[in-house]
Specification:
binds N-carbamoyl-L-aspartate, globular, Rossmann fold, about 300 residues, alpha/beta
């Protein structure tokens, strides 16, 4: 029995296998239609979500399994004071696998120790979001057919953006990847991400304050939302939220094969005028996320197709 709390819980070979499975699901969806018949996925979402929860549910339904769960803490016994440990121990009696989102960093780790079934971290506070990274990796793979040698720009809230931390953890393991971190001073990438993922491997990175100064160098531009819910001070959020707005004009000097990504939800970070640009991939990420979650569920439930 295995849980996935961090993207680095998966080896590069396992990531390759998940991508291969996802591509096979895309090519032959009917093969997988009954793969998880009789199995149940519980989605325990203590924090709002549209894509992640619905995509886990769609993934399990398309595998022929069933889903149960809750979409806000207020409708669970957490509102009566029940601990994460107890809630998951209970749900582990009903479900074969759990996807959990929680505002507290580390909550899915606590859950994994108690559940008795595999737990997937569907986002813990400002920490990690490994299944968004699976969606991101499949998107990059389908556009580039490689991860090596790419210059990856990450822009916006790099401090609280959990999708950023997980994506750096994944991409840092491929050869010759370079990072450009584009953020205001207050929202810089946490030092622990640099210390854990980049420094030990000597991976080159730059920190800059504007996207204009690096646009022409990037192979991937990963935009993010300023994470309002993690701010202590509303005035700081308002001051920082519109620091970066990607427009067609700003994309003018970019490479023709740049890919523009965003985990969504978007607020103002990308003008809707960019949506028709062939380089815009953020709605591809949504669909790719479902396929990768299907592949991950199959793996953790040890289902052979
Ligand atoms: C992200 C998240 O929840 O961290 N959303 C998602 O799962 N696609 C990004 C965000 O909320 O900004």
């Amino acid at each position: 029995m295995r849980s996935i709390l961090n993207i680095t819980d998966l080896t590069l070979d396992e990531l390759d296998d998940l991508i291969a499975t996802a591509e096979d699901i895309i090519a032959h969806p009917q093969k997988y239609r009954h793969a998880c018949q009789g199995k149940k996925l519980a989605t325990l979402f203590f924090e709002p979500s549209t894509r992640t929860r619905l995509s886990f549910e769609a993934a399990m339904l398309e595998l022929g399994g069933a889903v149960l769960g809750f979409s806000e803490a207020s409708s669970s016994s957490a509102s009566k004071g029940e601990s994460v440990a107890d809630t998951t121990r209970v749900v582990g009696c009903y479900a074969d696998i759990i996807a959990m989102r929680h505002p507290k960093e580390g909550a899915p780790l606590v859950a994994a120790r108690k559940a008795g079934v595999p737990v997937i971290n569907a986002g813990d506070g400002g920490h990690n979001h490994p299944t968004q990274t699976l969606a991101d990796l499949l998107t990059i793979w389908r556009k580039k057919r490689t991860f090596s040698g790419l210059t990856v720009g990450l822009c916006g809230d790099l401090k609280f953006g959990r999708t950023v931390h997980s994506l750096v953890g994944a991409m840092a393991r491929y050869p010759d990847v370079r990072f450009v971190f584009i953020s205001p001073e207050e929202l810089k990438i946490p030092q622990y991400v640099i210390d854990d993922e980049l420094a030990p491997r000597g991976i080159p990175y730059r920190e800059v304050a504007t996207m204009e100064e690096v646009m022409s160098q990037l192979d991937v531009l990963y935009m993010t939302r300023v994470q309002q819910e993690r701010f202590f001070n509303e005035a700081d959020y308002i001051r920082l939220r519109d620091t970066y707005i990607l427009t067609p004009e700003k994309l003018a000097p970019a490479k023709k094969d740049l890919i523009v990504m965003h985990p969504l939800p978007r607020v103002n970070e990308i003008s809707v005028r960019v949506d028709d640009d062939p380089r815009a991939c953020y709605f591809d990420q949504v669909l790719n996320g479902k396929y990768m979650r299907m592949a991950l569920i199959l793996k953790l439930l040890e289902v052979e197709v």
